[in-house]
Amino acid sequence: MNIWRHIDGWREARAGTVFTGRSIGFVPTMGALHAGHLSLLERARAENDVVVMSLFVNPTQFNDPKDFEKYPQTLDADLRAAEAAGVDHVLVPDRQEIYPDDYRYRITEDRLSRILEGAHRPGHFDGVLTVVMRLFNLVRPDRAYFGEKDLQQLLLIRGMVEAFFMPVEIVACPTVRAEDGLALSSRNTLLSPEGRAKAPTFSAILRSVEDPSAARAELERAGFEVDYVEDYEQWRLGAVRLEGIRLIDNVRRQ
Ligand code: PAF
After folding, report:
1. How far is 127 from 110, CA to CA, in rounded Å?
2. What gap in Å lies between CA 182 and CA 178, rounded to an integer?
3. 37, 89, 120, 124: the active-site residue
4. 3-state DSSP call for residue 253?
5. Could you tell me the pTM of the whole model?
6. What is the pLDDT of residues 39-90, one digit of tens each?
7. CA-CA-CA-CA torsion for 83, 86, 89, 90, nearest 10 degrees?
8. Ligand 1 center–CA 226 separation, angstroms
9. Catalytic: 120?
10. Domains and CATH numbers, the chain
11. Angle at 35 between CA 29 and CA 37, to 5 degrees
12. Protein residue with its CA nearest to atom 6 in ligand 1
């Protein structure tokens, strides 16, 4: 497995003949890999000749600096997991490598990015879309893999690819859940054992309560701080805080 810390070296390699005629599957991540990421890597491995993963905790998508500071960082374990999953190339750039312009140039969407998650995290999706656009330009993948857990992110990235005629197929992969129903997330590791035991109630209530405002009230009764529970097209999406840790999830409406 090749590890690229510098964009220049990677770009030179990417321009070489070794990639010619070979399909490239790309899995962008912020590290702290769990079984959800592994499912994306597995699918990318099965569908492409070459698998590229990026590992970059993107500062521009954190509207809350405290959230950025406490985001779990497990580089060595992540590299071992990537290698075991058959990744060929990992990009591990730093901020300066990805943002040589200091984020003067950015991508903005002005409808879907403003509601739900976007209404509670101003600037979040500008950061996500901008980093994904930059990574796509660096990797030039045939396919890129995203989890349905971050549904709004997935819809916005699809929309960006269509709007900018980008030659990449966006592959949506189902949310991976723990046995008790909790959607896997790097942030779950920040919960105490008591918090972790309570967390699955979030998806259970999202799924089982008919009306979004009743679901909100039920979540509050169960001890969650609720940012939103809303129905959007065929999905119900929600975000809550538990022990100060933000959890998001979505379920398909019946
Ligand atoms: O879903 C994530 O982990 C991030 O938002 C992504 C797509 C890697 C961009 O930083």
Report:
1. 13
2. 5
3. 37
4. coil
5. 0.96
6. 999 999 999 999 999 999 999 999 999 889 989 999 999 999 999 999 999 9
7. -50
8. 23
9. no
10. 2-173 (3.40.50.620), 186-252 (3.30.1300.10)
11. 20
12. 29
Chain mean pLDDT for the chain: 97
Does the pLDDT of residue 30 top 80, yes or no? Answer: yes
Q: How many angstroms separate the alpha carbon of residue 30 from the centre of ligand 1? A: 6
Q: Residue 114 has which token pair?
A: 């403003």
Q: Tell me, letter by letter, the H, E, C secondary structure of 56-98.
A: CCCHHHCCCHHHHHHCCCCHHHHHHHHHHCCCCEEECCCHHHH
pLDDT at 210: 87
CB of 60 closer than 6 A to ligand 1? no
> Which atom from ligand 1 is nearest to the alpha carbon of 150?
1
Does residue 28 line the site of ligand 1, with CB under 6 A?
A: yes
Q: Which of 207, 208, 239 is nearest to 226 (CA)?
A: 239
**Per DSSP, what are the bridge partners of residue 55?**
29
- Residue % of the chain over a pLDDT of 70: 100
Q: Per residue in 158-215, pLDDT tens?
A: 999 999 999 999 999 999 999 999 999 999 999 999 999 999 999 999 999 989 999 9
Question: In sequence order, what are the beta bridge partners of 239?
Answer: 228, 248
